[in-house]
Amino acid sequence: MKKIYLILIFLVSLTASAQVNYHFRGYIRDTLDGRPLPKASINIDFGKFGGLTDDKGHFDLLLPSGEHAISVKFVGYRPLREVIYLRRDIEKNYSLRLVENELEEVIVSSKGAESNIQRPLLGVNQLSIKTLRKLPAAIGEVDILRGLQMLPGVTSVGEASNGVNIRGGTTDQNLLLLDDIPIFNPTHMFGLFTAFPSEAASSVEVYKGNTPARFGGRAASVMDVSLQQPSLDKFKMSGGISFVSNRLTVDAPIIKDKLGIMVSGRASYNDFLLPVVSPKLNDIKANFADLVSKIFWRVNSKNTVTASGYYSKDFFQTKLLGAIGAINATSTQYDYRSKSFSARWFYAINNKFNLQTTVVSADYVPKTLLPELNSTNKVVLQSGITYKQLKSNLNYSSEKHRIEVGVSGTRYDIDPGQLIPGTSKSVLSVTTPREHALETAIHAEDEITLSPKATLSVGARYSQFFALGAGTVQTYAEGEPRDAFSARDTLVYGKGQVMKSYGGVEPRLGVKYSLNERTSVKFGYNLMRQYMQVVTNTTTPLPTSRWKSSDIHIKPQVSTLLSGGLFHNLRGNIYEFSLEAYYRLTNNIIDYKPGADFLLDGHPETQLLQGKNRSYGLEVMFSKKKGETTGWINYTYSRSMNKVYEGSGFGEQINFGNWYSANYDRPHSFNASLIINQGTHHDFSFNFSYSTGRPYTLPEGFIVYQARSYPYYGVRNNARLPDYHRLDFAWNIYQPGMKDKRFKSHFTFTVFNVYGKKNAYSVFVRSTGTAINSYKLVVFGSPIPSLSYNFKF
Hints:
By secondary structure, the protein is mostly beta strands. It contains five helices and 51 strands. The longest helix has 16 residues. Keywords: Cell outer membrane, Collagen, Membrane, Signal, Transmembrane, Transmembrane beta strand, Transport.
């Protein structure tokens, strides 16, 4: 037995002594100019072996045979990682890329590496779609609106809210465009996901400070989403599968170098998974589909034509919201769709002048379906808005001037609502009067380079709005509240007759002065008019909320914005720092009277009040845009306050005519996004969000009547929800060896709300006999893991 042990020990020692070492040598150089990189580090097998290059960038290491993990690093350069198989002496040369020479991985400022300090624009953010796809997403669904909420000055009233609030504005004060098409409802599944197709988008720009003169019609901001241009030489296909939806995008040339088409579709029929996400989503049925397409035709060297189409459809059913009115319904079903189109002709007159002419048509039809108890009939509440626009811009560009002049005309036709009883014998048909309006505008703008340090952007937009007939207008006794008791007469207008007109100049000004090559200060001034608005008495507008045009009684909102900022770039534009402050005063904001009900009301002015909003804030942001680790952090202090006083009566004022917090007033917010690129196989990302809880109205007392308690509300928005915070995580896993292959795919694993914070979406009270109980509604109260598969061909 001892002999056997001795033989085994001898064989093991013989094997160990027979292990062969090989030389692993080579050079490490700069990618651009080939110069050697001295003292570059080579890490082998996670620190087991390693060394540094000499003054000529050369290294020579003695390593045992077998598989080794290699990591090559040099300060200021992007690291390089790979796996080698050592079975003989080998020589490998590495070229590292200087981070300053990289394309920007994270774009959260104006276009171009230095435009954030060179152009006279403030409050302009551009979010890269490439970056957005790496950030954590709710239930694996890439979401443009959620990505924008990671930027300073952009918030929402909750996790399932319909839209975003920008610098103290309401959701309807944002002009949302998709290839010039206005989006009236920007979310799917009642606010859980964005309606913008991220798979087909190429860029997202948000103007929350200086707004170019070509944009108008909204009081707070502009979000401009562009679809990717169809390819004219290569066939491309991409898509993915997630818990929420299935996606497919096809990009194909029809005539090489002349005509191409891009079609992207997304559909969700996975609502059976909703109870897994949150028990609150039980009894909910929800699905959606959207389709976008874009055609690009290069007619010749001077003329191009593009055409874009957008179709979106949603179905959402819940028993939580109950029926409407006295209709005995088993559930409430929301069925809404958008059908839109835009076409643009671009004519290059010469190398300095070009002309763009665009036509747009949009149709949004929301419906509320009420299945009657013990019947196959559905009572339908339907509304809609039709939008048609024609505009043309002439552009001139030279060394010192960038001039744009243009004209536009927009037609609105609004169906405020109609009740269609179907076969029901207990429900009466109701139709509210349709609204018609025309908005015309001219604009001119010039970006002037005054000197190497000073640049000026000056422009103006003149808009004129006409409320048109046919229609009737109810007049009221002067100095009395607008209600049924003060109604005195009815004015009748014929088709096309002007019922009321509003208009005025909307000046735009931006000034930039460079303190040095990396630092600039800016000042901006904006005035914008809004003639269309959503009227609602909910915190976040429902997809079926009513759109209302300005008329004899409802004046347009007029917003004046002053802003200033300091911008500084560091280390070859790798890092950016910005500090912006703003003050905005908006006249004629809309709020609702206590107990207001807009449903099928032919005279909504009796339910509305108008007043003022003042919003101000300070935004600080720091971002790293290139390198292995990228991301940004920002902090915003902001306030948004309303003051509504039309008279001394209870129904003519809110909170006794004093300033009160708007629904979306969240004084403090902090956001951090981090993306860690680990070679070609993995990247990790984290999002952290914190904000002050939004205001809500808490009963001040209770009234007991006939043995039942009823809450008494004195002032509006007198309490706040608990502070909100959330951490999200994403891990992208790329298949190895696919760098040069035509077919590429990767998996994305995400965890939304990592530590399961039960953030309150709202607080409500409910009466049970003589007792009043308060409840907290939580949408996402636990960690939500998800896995999605994505591919590209």
